[in-house]
TrEMBL record, chain A:
Alphabetically ordered keywords of this record: Capsid protein, Virion
Organism from which the protein derives: Paenibacillus taihuensis
The protein's name: Spore coat protein JA
Domain of life: Bacteria
Automatic annotation (TrEMBL), chain B:
Keywords: Calcium, Capsid protein, Manganese, Metal-binding, Virion
Keyword Membrane: no
Record SUPFAM superfamilies: Ferritin-like
Cofactor(s) required, per the database record: Mn(2+); Ca(2+)
CDD domains membership: Mn_catalase
Name the UniProt record assigns to this protein: Spore coat protein JC
Organism of derivation: Paenibacillus taihuensis
Record GO terms (molecular function): metal ion binding
Family statement: Belongs to the manganese catalase family.
UniProt KW Calcium keyword: yes
Protein residues bound to Ca(2+): D59
Length: 77, 189
């Protein structure tokens, strides 16, 4: 796994008259491809079964993402 | 020419009856940053780009069609047994009126796909930077779709597709380095 954190936080302005409850922290994703200009040869590889499931052979390129939708939270269609 | 394997690139399992998500998935089907746009963009750019990156565009463009099939499968599973009433509640009423259960290349708001979504500037760097941007936009779109569903099996397939966007962007970045052609000279110390 990539040791570096793959998200960044920022703190938007919160006004005294905002109509909705404020979000104090906003987060965006910075995937690991941003830090590799050209992939070097012979990087470590996932086992093939893991690679298929994860979508990449290379731990250095793996980027996890978790849904912001909690179980049971999605609307009924 | 292409060789077709009658199977999906990655399994698609949908375990919750939720046609609402089908409407959002259509964004990746016929949207500006969807898989159709990606496939046609890359395959079309091959004819005006240096030889050494043509193969990359062929490979990734082909894989985008495999992703298109996965998205189509998700939409199909989510809508095939839905009643007109359920489709209407999911925001797919207009789609039903025009297409029945048929899929169509439009975005999640119903805007039909247009070739104006893709560019062929003929300039290798301009084209490749567009491709990198397209991959990152598609990655973001996958994130927002993943956020809209609590179906973990559907999330699983979408996470796979999201990771592929990251790998593709990586490869296009490498293609830029090859186009810049300073890699060979660097080695000659």
């Amino acid at each position: 796994m990539n040791a570096t954190k793959q998200t960044r936080d920022w703190y938007p302005f919160v006004g005294p008259f905002d109509p909705c409850p404020p979000k104090y922290v906003k987060t965006y994703v910075v995937p690991p491809n941003q830090f590799i200009p050209f992939q070097p040869m012979n990087l470590p590889q996932f086992p093939l079964a893991d690679a298929l499931r994860l979508g990449t052979l290379w731990p250095a390129l793996f980027s996890p993402y978790e849904s912001k939708c909690r179980p049971g939270e999605a609307q009924k269609g | 020419m292409w060789i077709y394997q009658k199977k999906l690139q990655y399994p698609v399992r949908v375990s919750k009856c939720d046609p609402r998500v089908a409407r959002y998935l259509v964004e990746q089907y016929g949207g500006a940053d969807g898989e159709l746009s990606a496939a046609l963009r890359y395959l079309n750019q091959r004819y005006s780009i240096p030889d050494k990156v043509i193969g990359l565009l062929t490979d990734i463009g082909t894989e985008e069609f495999a992703h298109l099939e996965m998205i189509a499968t998700m939409i199909y599973k989510l809508t095939k047994d839905a009643t007109p009433r359920q489709l209407e509640e999911a925001g797919l009423g207009p789609n039903y009126v025009i297409h029945d259960n048929g899929l169509f290349y439009n975005n999640s708001s119903g805007v039909p796909w247009t070739a104006a979504y893709i560019q062929a500037k003929g300039d290798p760097l301009a084209d490749l930077y567009e491709d990198i941007a397209a991959e990152e936009k598609a990655r973001a779109t996958y994130q927002w779709i993943i956020d809209m569903t609590d179906d973990v099996d559907l999330q699983d397939s979408l996470k796979f597709l999201r990771e592929r966007e990251i790998v593709h962007a990586m490869r296009f970045k490498e293609a830029v380095e090859m186009i810049k052609a300073d890699r060979d000279t660097k080695k000659v110390f």
